[in-house]
Batch of 4 targets.
Target 1
Amino acid sequence: MVPAILLVSILVIFPAVTFANHSWNGYHWARTSNPFTLKLGNNLSGVWQPFLGTTSSDWSASTVLDTTIVLGGTNPRPCKATAGRVEECNSTYGFTGWLGVAQIWISGTHITQGTVKLNDTYFNTAKYNTPGWRNLVSCQETGHTFGLNHQDETFGNTNLGTCMDYTNDPTGTAGTNGTLNNEHPNTHDYDQLVSIYSHLDSTSTVFSEIGGVSALLNTPRPDAGIDFDEPAEWGRLIDVTDGGYTAVYERDLGAGEKVITFVIWTDEARAARPDLTQRQK
Ligand SMILES: [Zn+2]
Ligand SMILES: [Zn+2]
């Protein structure tokens, strides 16, 4: 007489949940247990501190990963990556067209390191110098470093209530994108993380598990000397979106490695540089 128990077991093993896929190619940090803890290197100036705190605690609500803010391992320029973790940087990177970029280094299907750059050249202007824009960009770019893609790439449509949705109105109060707030992750993002990280790996690419930094520091990098600040350094455009704007680039570094670059363009860049941003077909 076990049907009820059996039924419960089956439901636990095969939860009836469907996940809309917004992972990026299934790329993920290799780790041997869940939840795993990813270090966010803090190379940020004072104004960004509370936003990194919000981003870190927002994503740590995930059941499969935690983030912890640690002393930064680089300078904001060039925001050099550190193996096994994410470096968070801000600087006046110039009128590059991008508000924020996230970069992840991939070996096979595994993320080995990541960076987030926040461009104060724009955040120092009235339009972007708001908690809404700062939260959106910090949350989204950090989300990319876990292997998440965007949920939606049309700037002008109704907010989905997640920072992984491009918008012209992060707070949902301007009357242009509905009323939902895009400053934080939503349930869909947490579900997607569960989907990406439900399996375990036999090896790890996460800092706390890779066993010592000195060996890594001595390994020559195939991308030494590239700062990845400019579109010309990002490789080929690989994301073509229904919104008419492209956002993701891939550069093969050789030695089995590549770099994926996720971009949030400014309004101004989207208007002025259709060659960079418009649909490629
Ligand atoms: Zn894996
Ligand atoms: Zn993005």
Target 2
Amino acid sequence: MTEPLQQLQQSLKGQGSLTRPRQVVFSALLGREPQTMAQLVAACASQIDRASVYRTIALFEKLGVVQRLQIGWKYKLELSDTFHHHHHHLTCLKCGRTTPLPEDKQLESRLQQLAKAQNFTMQGHQLEIQGLCRDCVRSR
Ligand SMILES: [Zn+2]
Ligand SMILES: [Zn+2]
């Protein structure tokens, strides 16, 4: 079993075994940029049905395997920081593409400081920059 799958099994704990739908959905998320539910359903369509994808995502969210990236009133899904390196995103408001930003240690520690100054212990955060990507700026 690959390492990510072992991690997944640990996260599932008392929630049953690594069933096929769980493996399929997990593989569809692994190493990918954030996807909408529709994209995810499409990616799994040849192997499991829509209802199974929804059910599995609901469980994954509850267990912290998956996190939502809120984009306006919509959202995309990606694996949580347990499964891939913590990062921030750029989202293009025109074409909807989401791309990762390179890690910035200064920004990370600044966020820690800001939270700490409010006597708040930060356990995680999400950060997303919204705007227009290069292609969309050009085609305007
Ligand atoms: Zn764009
Ligand atoms: Zn961060």
Target 3
Amino acid sequence: MFNGLLKDLAQNLKQFPGVGEKTAQRLAMFLISQDKDRSRNLAQSILDAVDKYNNCTQCNMLAETDPCSFCSDTERDTKRICVVENTADVFLIQNTHEFRGIYFVLGHLLSPLDGIGPTEINFEKLADRIKQIKPEEIILALNPSPEGETTINYIASQLQPMNIAITRLSTGLPFGGDIEYTSSMTLSHAFKRRMPI
Ligand SMILES: [Zn+2]
């Protein structure tokens, strides 16, 4: 229905999670109809965040600084590393107030059929980090989906010779991919009742 720049704008908006054709068109129309400065501020804010956020070289999370605020915080307990799928999960776990250790973000879950192997989940980087800081416990806070289970099994088997406690959150908890359905309270309980692998 749209053409020209408006069509391009709608097509770009359609890439957002949960945004279909109709919503994308409505948003595109809204952006060109509202006060121009508000739309310019939004565009600038996107540019600023996109340019400024990069993967922390230590934990791989997306952060404004490198190392990120967690890796550079000397108050945090380096005896525990919590391994999560993505940066959003770090903030979910922070919200439970159950964890004072450091994090590692895999970026993906293993999915050999989709070409996502150990390199894509940054396993070597995790292994290097573990050798470097020698933690006592690795908590695998991953979604119990087929990909999550594959990832948990892979990491646990690879780390076994290192003689570190490897734990996971209590089972049945939709996490990561279904983060919005997991309350902070549920996650907090799952964290407290974590189990050895
Ligand atoms: Zn970091």
Target 4
Amino acid sequence: MKRLYAVYGFSGFGREVFPVLQSQLEHQTHESDQCEVVYIDDAATDGQILNSIEVHTFESFLKKPADEKHVVVAISDSAIRQKLINRCEQAGIRQFSVRAKSVVELDNVQIGEGSILCPFVTLTSNLKIGKSFHANIYSYVAHDCVIGDYVTFAPRVNCNGNVHIGDGAYIGTGAVFKQGTPRKPLVVGKGAVVAAGAVVTRNISAGTTVFGNPAVPLTRANIEARRDRG
Ligand SMILES: CC(C)(COP(=O)(O)OP(=O)(O)OC[C@H]1O[C@@H](n2cnc3c(N)ncnc32)[C@H](O)[C@@H]1OP(=O)(O)O)[C@@H](O)C(=O)NCCC(=O)NCCS
């Protein structure tokens, strides 16, 4: 049985995910199976090699012989990620999840397919997380959080308990979420963006970008006001 795996996207993130996947497969693969891992990138050129690994376009990946094909999309932009996952599904290729050995998962964590959990991510207890969640290095999600589909956490996101994050939200590196409560969770709307280093203390409406401590909408007036404040 020849199984072909691909990391879709050879950006910085894709190249970080690749060795995590290789290590995962070393532990999962039966001796009788042949297993190959490649990159897919729409910008690939014929015969391209990156870090000694073949890079294919989606079309050349489809043509490559294998008994089974699996793809994980390692692209942070959730709209692009969703589009590429749809493309894979239309071609009959299912998503799989990548999880570093150092990930800590405590109790009652539900998580959808196609997730990428990078080294040193911690998921604590009673979590409901949708499909294609990306948690970059050192991020954590604490108790009773609910996270939608196609949500991206950059490195070291601190998501405390009872926070609800809508589909397609992007959370920048080092962001901190103040905890909510069971009766009043902190709610981040669909497609919201949280800037690197923001400290989120209040709900964020859908599609809004926030920044700073405490986080406020990223508008020209707020940027200037924060500068004046020093
Ligand atoms: C919030 C964010 C998405 C805005 O991006 P953008 O729309 O391209 O905005 P710009 O970078 O052009 O910045 C617009 C203004 O906001 C300010 N700004 C941007 N991000 C900021 C932040 N995190 N904190 C404080 N101010 C910020 C900029 O200084 C700039 O001010 P100026 O116009 O007076 O120079 C982006 O800055 C960000 O934080 N992205 C997350 C980065 C990250 O975590 N990467 C991880 C990679 S793995």
